[in-house]
Amino acid sequence: MPLKVKVTYCLCDVFCFYNSQFRKLEAELQKKFPGKLEISSEATPTVTGFFEVEVDGKLLHSKKGGDGYVDTDAKLRKIMDGIQAKLK
C-alpha cells in the first residue's frame, strides 16, 4: 500500500509559483520513491502562503511554520528522510 503524501499550498497566483513548487517536489519524490507514494495536493481557496507537506498525516514541512519553500537540498532531504522512516 503506497504511503500518503499530501501537499497543501497557497491558491495559485498569476504565475502559479506554488503549483510549480508542488510539481517540482512531486517529481523529486516520485523519482526517489517510485511506486511507493500516493501524492496528493490541495490548493487553498484563498491566499494563505501555505506550502505544507504531510506524510501519513504528520506535518514534515511548513512554510507558514518557518521552513519556507522546499528550495534547498537540506529541506528536500528532511522530507525524504521522513518518508524513508515511514516506509521502514
UniProtKB/TrEMBL annotation:
Protein name, UniProt field: Selenoprotein W
Keywords: Redox-active center
InterPro entries, per the entry: Selenoprotein_Rdx-typ, SelW_related, Thioredoxin-like_sf
Transmembrane segment boundaries: none
UniProt entry tagged with the keyword Zinc-finger: no
